[in-house]
Design goal:
The protein is of the alpha+beta class and about 250 residues long. It has seven helices and nine strands; from the N terminus they run H-H-H-H-H-E-E-H-E-E-E-E-H-E-E-E. The relative contact order is 0.12.
């Protein structure tokens, strides 16, 4: 038989607490210790001892642990990614984060464009057309202007895009511009690219490598969200674009 001091050390329970238990009650003490090691609170253990909602309490704890494990795995993946890049002396200007993309009402126009330079010609015209038919329309604050790429692969010519601008209310459609709701994206891998669009491919390469190395798959088409550009920055080196790729676990 263990002495009370040894029993206290083995079970990590104070001698004072043990003195409240008779030998017949030690199995109950063991059960309490086991439940504490799982992570249950004193109140939850009391509820379990009374036989109230045991399945629900255990299922809730199971879900908490699964969520904690998933978050720890995500953090571990990012640390592994950083360490690998540090060893390669990789450019750390691109910092990838995962976040939710909100549900938005947008006016949009889907079209095939000849090349990327066509943006500078067509996007101002879209704004003018919307303003003409919806003079009271207001953009969201902060503004959320983005392009969705529907091709599923990189193309330099005849690119299938959808230009979207988030607004506060529904407006009136035109022949080429439609109002629609874009559903929330639960998780998207996102990275900022500062500089001209001609070098944005470096950001895409970094982003998709991060997605692969962290055990994700792209679950939908990528978006480019335009924060600073030709409309407010004269120097193209000051243009700021956020790449957003919806993701899911493999």
């Amino acid at each position: 038989m263990y002495r009370i001091g040894m029993f206290s050390k083995i079970n990590k329970v104070t001698i004072k607490a043990i003195r409240y238990y008779t030998s017949d009650q030690l199995p109950l003490l063991h059960k309490i210790i086991a439940l504490r090691q799982i992570g249950f609170s004193i109140d939850e253990i009391s509820t379990i001892q009374q036989g109230q909602n045991n399945i629900r309490i255990f299922q809730q704890r199971e879900q908490e642990l699964k969520s904690s494990i998933a978050e720890s795995q995500r953090q571990l993946g990012q640390i592994t990614h950083y360490l690998a890049k540090m060893k390669e002396d990789f450019n750390m200007n691109y910092e990838v984060v995962s976040k939710e993309l909100p549900e938005v009402i947008v006016f949009s126009r889907r079209m095939a464009i000849p090349d990327y330079n066509y943006y500078f010609e067509i996007i101002p015209k879209i704004g003018e057309e919307v303003k003409k038919s919806n003079p009271e329309l207001k953009c969201t604050v902060p503004e959320y202007c983005f392009i969705i790429y529907h091709d599923g692969e990189y193309k330099e010519k005849n690119i299938d895009i959808e230009f979207c601008e988030a607004v506060t209310t529904w407006g009136k459609d035109t022949e080429t511009i439609k109002f629609k709701k874009i559903e929330k994206v639960a998780s998207a891998a996102c990275v900022y690219h500062k500089g001209p669009y001609s070098s944005i491919g470096n950001a895409y390469a970094h982003l998709y490598k991060w997605i692969e190395e962290n055990g994700f798959l792209a679950s939908d088409n990528p978006r480019e969200s335009y924060i600073d550009g030709i409309w407010n920055k004269e120097d193209e080196n000051d243009w700021l674009t956020e790449l957003q790729v919806p993701i899911m676990k493999k």
